[in-house]
Amino acid sequence: MRFGGRIIYSKTASEVDMRAMQLLRDLETKRDQSGRAIVGFDVEWRPDFTKGFVGVGIGDDSAKLFRDHGVSIKDVEDLSDLADKKLGGNSKKWGLASLTKTLVSKEVLKPKCIMLGNSEAYPLSKKQLEYAATDAYASWYLIG
Question: Residue 69 needs a FRET pair 20 to 30 A away by CA distance; which of 14, 18, 30, 55 works?
């Protein structure tokens, strides 16, 4: 599985703010009958190899965004938790790649050189942008 759409890379705080406001306006037109709009979301952080590093789960990402940048994200759903509820059985900490493979028989490539690379580098490489966009797309695809 690979994201094949347009990637918009915001490099400044004002660009991020402008893109976020545009996204919110776009979402207003895409709500379903229940009033919900689903967005695939992924945040990449520089790997931290010290004990206690948190990087799995959207709840952890949203907490880090708030702690580090004061950005509050509400109503997040962790796909690992949703998969456990839907599939039953033993509780498992799913990764996006294993979840995508199990549910839709598609492979999400997770090259170590990108996974363990510096996601805070500036500017991000094309491969880093594609990696992050594919993760967000796969998250959205699994819910849809």
Answer: 30
